[in-house]
Amino acid sequence: MAKHASRQFILARLVLGSAAAVLLSLVVWIAVVAGGSGTAGQPLLVQPSAALQAAGESLPSAVPTTEAASTTPSLTPSASVSSSASSSPSPSASVSSSASGRPKPSKSPSRTPSRSPSPSPAANTLAVTYSTSAVWRDGFIAAVRVVNNGPAAREWTVTLTYPSNADVEVRGGWNASVSAGGGTITLRGNSLAAGASITAGFQGSKDVGGAVNPISCAVGGGACRMS
């Protein structure tokens, strides 16, 4: 817009300047023709007409005013550009705020606790034989022979139950831990290797005459017989 106005101004100036030059040439020519009969060698002073003076006064005074006018509007677009550029970070701020949302934690599937397999009962690999080696009026000596017929070593426990009227008590034992109570005697042995055997026994007391035999013999993981 400023450049277009500047071009129109310069074109008008050129037209007015050309018209003034033509008028000045006509005035000079008329003066020369009119004053040809004057004294030779005397300079002729020609005063410009009022129309020529008015045309000269109508011309613009200086060109720098046009340049100043043309440069002044050029500052406005740069200001508008800078303001629009400064406001551009607004969308990025909204994007960052939306992106900063915390994701919802996903629920982990619940795990069903696995049940540990129950230990299988020990196989009947123990063979026990009960016997009495000595008997007297108020006491006796008994023994149990334990054989491990299984493929692995294992501990053993033998339980002997006597008649309640015999009032059997333990006086001592060997090769096993022996305990008594309520007419029951229990022998507990340490680990017995596979294919091995052991004989354990005890000395007991009784309140009946003659021999006294247990009414039951039991062993965990095996069978017991009385000889």
Automatic annotation (TrEMBL):
Bias (Low complexity): 62-123
Biological process according to GO: carbohydrate metabolic process
Coiled coil segments of this chain: none
Region: Disordered, residue numbers: 62-124
Gene Ontology molecular-function annotations: hydrolase activity, hydrolyzing O-glycosyl compounds; polysaccharide binding
Domain CBM2 intervals: 119-227
UniProt cross-references to SMART domains, sorted A to Z: CBD_II (SM00637)
Name of the protein in question: Cellulose binding domain-containing protein
Protein's organism: Actinoplanes italicus
Lineage: Bacteria, Bacillati, Actinomycetota, Actinomycetes, Micromonosporales
